[in-house]
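Hi R.,

Here's the chain you asked about this morning:
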Amino acid sequence: MSARRFLSVALFSALLLGATAQETQWKLDWMDDFNGPELDTTVWSPIKRGAADWNNTMKDEPRLFEFRDGCIVLKGMLSNDQKADTLPYVTGGIYTIDKKAFQPGKFEIKARLHGTKGAWPAIWLKPYEHEKYRWPMGGEIDIMERLNNNHIVYQTVHSNYTHHKGNTKNPPSGATFPIDREGWNVYGVEIHPDKIQFFINGKPTLTYPKVNDGADGQFPFYIPQFLLIDMQLGGAWVGEVDLNDLPVEMEVDWVKYYTPVK
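And the predicted structure, written out as tokens:
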């Protein structure tokens, strides 16, 4: 075989193997369509108040969670009792922490976001063994974050490699992508052994590959995860909240989780 022919065959084989590796077949393993009258507490819990920007206004208050038209509606609202809670506003969110672990797979979430100044809705994943992995050592996968009423969303990964080592550009660890600002969008991610692949409305967006065999904590993501969905408000990143424009809502129609077909 000539050298030219050998190179052509080798290149074709490499391309074929690459295409085959990307064509993972998925099967639906679990979903929640939020059609019931209340939260499935075997899977979900309301997010608890914390000290971070993202959870320092969370509250387990019934009016922050509504089931309407086959959706769960997470809300950001003015506080109704300043004596009991001195915060000017409170927010609702749900997560599967300590209840449902998701093995590496594919996630899709259909949601509609209602924007205002200071709104910061998010859909994301963190290590299920959260006590074992101190942030960011176990990684964080931000399937969707939106600020204010922007026509774009952020899709990002965080890790020791990106946060402590400062390597956010090689490879790029995040990017922004357009959405239907007023309508429904499906946000997705696939967790593979060698890459994270993000999607919006079924179309691939950001791909984050494993490099250097994951050295320096670059790729800690291939572990069980828990899912968070929350209607956040305020914080250092998004800025001040327009109190006159509250309440604000985040509607979630369904969540789907897929596992690879063996």
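The first strand starts at residue 26 and ends at 32.

Let me know if you need anything else.
M.
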